[in-house]
Amino acid sequence: MHEKLSVNTEIKARELKKVPKSIWALGFVSMLMDISSDFINSLLPLYMSSVLGIGVVFIGLIEGIAESLVLMIKIFSGVLSDIIKKRKIFTVLGYGLSACAKVIFPFASTVGLLLFARVTDRLGKGLRDAPRDALLGELAPASIRGLCFGLRQSLDNVGAFIGPLFAMIAIMTFTDNFRTLFWIAVIPAFLSVILLIIGVHEPKKYDGLIAKNIKFSLSYKEIGNLSPRYWLVVIIATALTFARFSQAFLVLRSTTVGMSFAMVPLVAMVMNFFSAASAYYAGYLSDKINRLFFIIAGFIVLITSEIILGYAHSPQHLIAGVSLWGLHLGLTQGVFDALIVDTTQSDIRGSAFGIFNFICGIATIISNLVAGLLWKYYSPEATFFGGAAFTVIALIFFVIKLIYNHSKLYKIK
Predict the structure, then answer these.
(1) Three-state SS at 328
(2) pTM for this prediction
(3) pLDDT tens, position by position, 365-408
(4) 63 with 234: CB under 8 angstroms?
């Protein structure tokens, strides 16, 4: 048994050595930006509700608009990165815009300015993510593709764990001085941009390949080049996106079960700890077996999480539900990215990520709006029970597609 564990450890170490330095750099870039973003995000719902007096439905709408903007703008950056054959420039612009947006939050004393800061931040994320994921797909060796995406996702979630941890410590130090708290978040954001510029390099095959007569369009022919297997992945991801909603509702749920203000960042910490701990291993194992098994597991874990959160009457129950929420993210997010690369050609991969995220963006805004309405007109419990019900429906749909398209799905690793 000991020898078997030793061999497995050696295999994992050997495969980690195959990971290109630029992928490691991208992982740490994501980690630093997530430290900044989740520092702010763990405080923002409370700031909106307690300081600015924004209602839950409007919070859901703001979060839905912000998060869907991220996903929908990716279609443009993804397509453009395919056209000019340059991924890094959009990645730098996106991270840079998000870093600049972090400077606005300390001055956001009105709903309008807060919305502007949130949208600008999310616009930056939308600009960077599709080209970054396409770049990572080009850099990652095919034999460890899942591992590379899982590693980046895991480092991203490490940052998302550290951010709320720093926020919790900062709250205890600066009490409710939100302006000072938001200024702290600016530092890691700009460090991420510096690391990206210095540490990440595009593959040499892109050198000098800027397309002539650039025309911004996503043609029917280009869409037609996307395989049925790709569209199947998009459908599955959209169904899962409909079934879950913004982290803001997890934070707000903590206030209904007796969690103190200073302990609220613990919600994001726990969620991202379990996401970080599982993302790497999900990616690593998905290189060995069919990736769809992890998607099915993610559905089941999300259903369990939403039921626990619906019944939660204490901070302990809440933490249990949030832990499973983080686990489902770790099981699915990096694996979905790897599936997109598995099912698309290199020359339209940026567009593929853009379309994928555009469609999921539509689902996100609807999901958050419905969650806010359920919360306001029924109860916080109804929000999570409704999510669980839809997740069950989505899982049944997924299984039916799995049965009717077995030969097609079997080819998806």
Answers:
(1) helix
(2) 0.71
(3) 788 888 888 988 888 899 999 989 988 988 887 777 776 665 45
(4) no
